[in-house]
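Practice set, problem 2.
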Amino acid sequence: MKIRNFSIIAHIDHGKSTLADRILQYAGAITEREMQSQMLDSMDLERERGITIKASAVTVHHRHNGEDYMLNLIDTPGHVDFHYEVSRALTACEGALLVVDAAQGVEAQTVANTYLAVDHDLELIPVLNKIDLPAALPDEVAMEVEGVLGLPAEDCVPCSAKTGEGVKELLGAICEKFPDPEGDPGAPAQALIFDSIYDDYRGVVTYVRMMNGKLKVGDPIRMMRSGRTYAITALGKMTPKEQKVKELSAGEVGFVVASIKTLDEVNIGDTITHDKHAADEPLPGYREPQRMVFCDFYPTGDTKYDELRQAIERLRLNDASFIFAPESNDALGFGFRCGFLGLLHMEIIQERLEREGKVEIVQTAPTVTYQVLKSDGEVLEIHNPAELPDPSHITELREPIVKLEIITPNEGIGDIMKLCESRRGIYLKQQYLSDTRQILDYELPLGEIIFDFFDKLKSITRGYGTMDYDLIGYRKDQLVKVNVLVNAMPVDSLSFIAHRSKAEQRGRQFLIKLKKHIDRHQFEIPLQAAIGGKIIARETIKAMRKNVTAKCYGGDVSRKRKLLEAQKAGKKRMKRVGSVDIPQEAFMAVLEPEE
């Protein structure tokens, strides 16, 4: 029996999941009756839960030209925004189906995922999906695929995942064009872990691709990176229901259960080998995912700190790609600082915490990681402005830079260029995509696109613009820490990092917003933004005053002056000893993105 390992990659909403379900149906893995519930269930879960739902590899059998084929469809887990997630699936494959919407054409993530597949030396089959739509232009999109991605237009397989048209031809192309997996069944066992989930009854279930050798139920195994040993209690495949098997051989994909207690014991990208007949060296694996976006979660409403901690720990069992650490804040109390792969990941984690953990949380504005080169040569990573060392010890402050690829209709180009320049973008190049669309390449600081860049892009292009970004490294710039002082006292939780050219403007906006949320006190409250010892912006909250001269009508002016001077002296004394109450709403308001 011949084996074909392949993945489906696509831009969001180009029909990846529907096509996966349709392939299962045509290969006979699920019946028409199951198909309905199967498709709707998985789609709903994927939409609701986000990023690790369809992580399992599905194995189906198909007969083509008189030969039997075992097709292992390794669905790209989670959202295609996460290059890291997609690359994990691609490492376990020899081929990939590149799905392009026949009405929308090539989009930003289509380009990004193609480059990713080429980096992994995969055979690509371009698939033109949604040809049943009235707006579909399969011929034009096929030429676009050839022009932008360099894949011959005649190789494109037109199909409709919705109606099933062309899926049989696609299965034939998978059998004919994708290569046989390399691997020696007689060599020492090497299995690459490309995903893992936590099961309440069996412990950790690891999804593996067998690169070499064989694994049988009962075999003693070893994780090559951590050195921990276990005994296999079950092996199986998803077809798409679980099907137990006695052994997994080179080229096959399946899952391994070995009474592993926690997800921390399993590293994605680690190699499983036989404990007695071990392989000489582990497989290359993956680099650890970089958490790019950080924000704080604090309990609110009826939720207690311990309840939030339990909810976060439970969620971490099924999604090991985010990190968390305890954090405290003057106004919001005790909470957690969490790191995510991107903005979408952050939204999904927050939603899952509220739905599955049944907790109420307050989320602070997202921040990015900065690098600090100290005068003694040490390089620190800073996730929070409050962690910055003394300015006299800082040689340079570096910010993360991304390469941004925007696909836009022609009429949006001018406004997008203005938007990128206002965000300190560096223009790289412009590519012709079709008569109506262009690709723009920019280098931008990640901190400038993290809040509302995507929303602005969508409104400029009336929803037709798409973007994809990739971290290219850290670069030094004129970055400063802006301290916020309330009544001459610095409030650490309100400090932020900004570019020197924008620090004054941001500081002023910040104070105006803060002023609206702090109530007037019996004394005047100065609000100041400062860089080091230099005040760059100030707003004043006036004192509440009683009209002490109300009882003086007529008479000498010195009587009024005496009463006003007494009031002034009292205010001065109060300002010295009085403290300012900053309500929680004030902290939340200033942490919202700027207009």
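Problem 2, part (b): a different protein.
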Amino acid sequence: MSESPSTGVTRVCGNCQQVYGYKEKHVCPKGGAAEVPADPLIGATLGGRYLIESFLSSGGMGVVYRAKHSVLDKPLAIKLLREAQDPMMQQRFLLEAKSACHIGHENIVDITDFGVLDDGRPYLVMEFLQGQSLESVIAKGALPPLRSCRIAEQIARGLHAVHEKGIVHRDLKPGNIFILERGRKDFVKILDFGIAKVMAGTRESLSGGANLPNLRATATGTVLGTPEYLSPEQGAGEAFDARVDQYALGCIMYEMLTGQVPFRGNGPMSTLMKHLTEKPVPPRKRRADLNIPESLEKIVLKAMAQQKENRYASMDELANVLQELIDSGTLPPDPAMMRPSSSLQTVATSPSPGTPSAQPELSPLTSGDMFAPTLQAAIPSKADIAKEKARLKENPSGIEPKPHLATERVPPIVLSKRSSLPVVLLGVAGVMVLLLVAVLAVKLGGGSKSHATEAADLGAGKSVMPSLGEPAAPKEQKISFENQSTGKVTLLCGSKKNCILDVGKSCELVLPEDTKCEASATGFRSQSVDVADAIRGAGKGKAVLIPIQLDADKPAGKAGKVKKTKAKSKKR
């Protein structure tokens, strides 16, 4: 296949109508030098036909813009890679665009054009969507069974069309599914074929017979995808087929019905291992408070079968089963569907003055990272999988851990306690000195006035003497801890105070000033925190915020040596 021709990007001067390169500094003969915007692409035109109007979103690999066709005046979305790519990667990118645009199904996002800028950066031109992601919908709470079925049936129909073209999505998740109102409520669009795998025959036909490597080929010994929706065969590095998308859809249906993903560990690899070694808690058991029909639960669990042979034969079969359940009339009615028609032709009542109206998400490309998988990690070994399965057999109760507890074993942490013995001994010595001084004063001084004074002094001394049995308790203060690490952190303070912090989250504890805490996370070195030091550092009267930032752990041997060295330094 020949190298893709580069696309020119130009700007037009509003005064003299002169066309010039979008990075060039233009001096207008009628009005002086034109201002160059912070983002030179905004206001520029790609290939003489796509006018970039505004920035929409960005991510680690891509930037997304709202645009319009300069002739047809049609709104579009353009996704552009941040960095230039070599000719081979450009061809893979083009193959990816072709794989999506050749599907031609109403539930698949429509890709209308592809190109490469003159600086080597590829871009895609896609239909502009107005609505919200399924991820945003689920974030508001579990969906009614009938609504979940209608959405899942459309996803299955769209993916069946994808599979018929010899393409596997491989990264299906709620964030890649867009919910629109297009003549009816909950119209589904499937997006982001960023790590799609094109089967050999289809790849050859799309590439014109060129001998190209697999699209988004995975490095040997690694897995790509999103852990919460990754099939067991993908996680184990085994050969897979289109049924990996069915497993992901089963996980999405589970999440729609319960508001929770079927598996979530203490990190990406922990979540992946759960898909390999555990069975999901049935939705009706996970959310007994919801009216989830048993017939729908069976469909979800069959789609999520750990062995792909036990799933439905195809997405078409799954879609037909869901449609039969919808038509049966046995599902409880969806309250939202019982309201007046919510189609685009019906305009809702205007909000009262001063009430902000909800702004829908715009464009299917909210992540900006269509081409970046959520997880790229080493495939767990068979020995690790067998070890985890053996551990689960020892505790087959199936009782789900409480949400606030860590899902992985955390080694016990022994916190050093400040001994109260030195304080007690110091108090005893002080009392003895005061008594000795008082006795000497009585014997040497004499006189009634002196005795009265000494008695008063001795009484005053007694009033401030610390009790031998009850040493004064240290003051308590509210302390805030913030997890600035890249993993979930377990924090232990004393014998009773503890909390578990997700990434970027905080918690508050009321602690004595002499408390020492220990922060730990799987795969990271633990961190000791002295509350007294933090209070002194914050200053008198100021709120105390302690950041927790754990370093990645070193191999076990080296880590042990470091810990021993630290322990010796403390004794000195």
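Answer key, part (b): The chain has a mean pLDDT of 74. The first helix runs from residue 87 to 101.
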